[in-house]
Design goal:
This protein has 118 residues and is an alpha+beta fold. The chain has one domain. The chain contains 4 helices and 4 strands, in the order ααααββββ. A hairpin with a 7-residue loop joins strand 1 and strand 2. The longest helix is centred in the N-terminal third of the chain and has 14 residues. The radius of gyration is 14 Å and the shape is globular.
Amino acid sequence: MALWAAPFPWVLEGTRFCAACSPSRRALTPSGAVAAIGRALPLTLRASCLTQALAGWIMLTRHGVLGRIRIGVASPEQGFKAHAWLEVGGRVILGDVEDVDADGGLGSFHVIWTLPAE
């Protein structure tokens, strides 16, 4: 709901707060994170890619796994399109994973924003 109603910087602060406020004591491997996110996704009721990436990042951070959200935009020739995905160790674990390019972009998407910043 915050993505609809609040400015994006406020959403980011809330995301960071949620990730830091109650860290889990249980270790989680990247493959375990993929499985947990996969189990949770059917409950998201068609959440946007950004909503899913933020929720996945919070979960990873609480379990001590360093994840990275990337937001990219498509080239102007394709019309305006944007996409968010979640990476762990440079590997896309949430988002379309078939088409990652050498620059860290996802197929035709050029990365314009990363959390945490590089």
